Amino acid sequence: MRAVLDTNIVIDLLHFADPQTLALQQAIARGTLHCFTDRPCLAELQRVCTYPQFGLDAAAQGVLLDGYASFVTHCEPDAVEDYPLPRCRDADDQKFLILGMRCRADLLITRDRRLLQLARQRRLPLPFVIVTASAASGLIAESATAAIA
């Protein structure tokens, strides 16, 4: 499966080792979950890593970013992108939808309330699903089971 991880999920996965992201970590390690980023998403992660509430010094920030770089694939635009996408209430989240379209994601994994609300909107359906880490874990497991069958 192909996925975009929003910034909070990356922090949960690599800094907090949140148990809800364990299945994602395992799927990444097995190669059954392929994650994508681009310059705007990576820049946001780099900025968020410096927030004092995370307590990451420069060395810890580097470890987190290197850990992310070890499994993420860059998917930069080739041309002007004009995808028929719903508009996010938080303009900072739009980049994750754009990246999802560009890299042909199956999943956009987030815990952002506004993105999750957008997932329920039906006016402009997306070719990928917006889900929490827990929901993504179930979908990844189903996909692996279907591939074996």
SSE inventory with pairings:
Blueprint: E1 2-5, H1 7-16, H2 22-30, E2 34-37, H3 39-49, H4 58-69, E3 72-74, H5 94-102, E4 107-109, H6 113-120, E5 129-131, H7 133-148
Parallel strand pairs: 1-2, 1-4, 2-3, 4-5
Can you offer a commentary on this structure?
The chain has 149 residues and is α/β, with parallel strands linked by helices. It has a single domain (2-148), classed as 5'-nuclease (Rossmann fold, 3-Layer(aba) Sandwich), CATH 3.40.50. It has 7 helices and 5 strands. The chain has helices at 7-16, 22-30, 39-49, 58-69, 94-102, 113-120, 133-148; strands at residues 2-5, 34-37, 72-74, 107-109, 129-131. Strands 3-2-1-4-5 form a 5-stranded parallel sheet. Helix 6 links the parallel strand 4 (107-109) and strand 5. The longest helix is centred in the last third of the chain and has 16 residues, at 133-148. The radius of gyration is 15 Å and the shape is globular. The model has no long low-confidence stretch (mean pLDDT 91).
Please supply descriptive tags for the structure shown above:
single chain, 5 strands, Rossmann fold, alpha/beta, 149 residues, 50% helix
The general outline is globular
In the predicted model, the low-confidence regions spanning at least 5 consecutive residues are: none
CATH homologous superfamily heading: 5'-nuclease
Major sheet size, sense and barrel closure: 5 strands, parallel
Spatial arrangement of strands, main beta sheet: 3-2-1-4-5
Rg of Cα set: 15 Å
Strand segment count: 5
CATH architecture annotation: 3-Layer(aba) Sandwich
- Mean pLDDT comes to 91
